[in-house]
Amino acid sequence: METKVKKAKHDPRDQLLSPAVDKGRRSGGMRRRRVSAGVLAVVTGACLGVGAGVVPAAAAPASGPAPAATKAAVPQGLESFYGQKVEWYDCVATAGVEKSADKTGFQCAKVTVPLDYSHPDGQTIEIAMKKHLATGSTRQGTLFMNPGGPGESGVNDIGESVTSTFAGVQKAYDIIGFDPRGVGSSTAVNCTSDTELEAASEGTPVNAGEGGMTFEQRAAVISAQFKQFEASCAANTKPTELLDHVDTVSVARDLDVLRALSGDQKLNYAGFSYGTYLGAHYAELFPANTGRMFLDGAQDPSLSFTELIKGQARGFERALRNYVAWCQSGQSCPLSGDVDAGVQQIGDIFTSADQSPVPSSDATRPVTGDDMKQVVSVMLYSPETAWDTLNEAFGEVVNENNAWAFRSIADQLDAQPLANTGALISVNCLDYRVEGDMATWKAQSEELQKISPRFASTFDGVELGCQAWGHTGTQPSKALHAKGSAPILVIGTTGDPATPYEDAVALADQLDSGQLLTWEGNGHTAYASSGSGPCVTKAVDTYLLTGTMPKKGLTCHGTE
Question: Active-site residue numbers?
Answer without folding.
Answer: 273, 496, 524
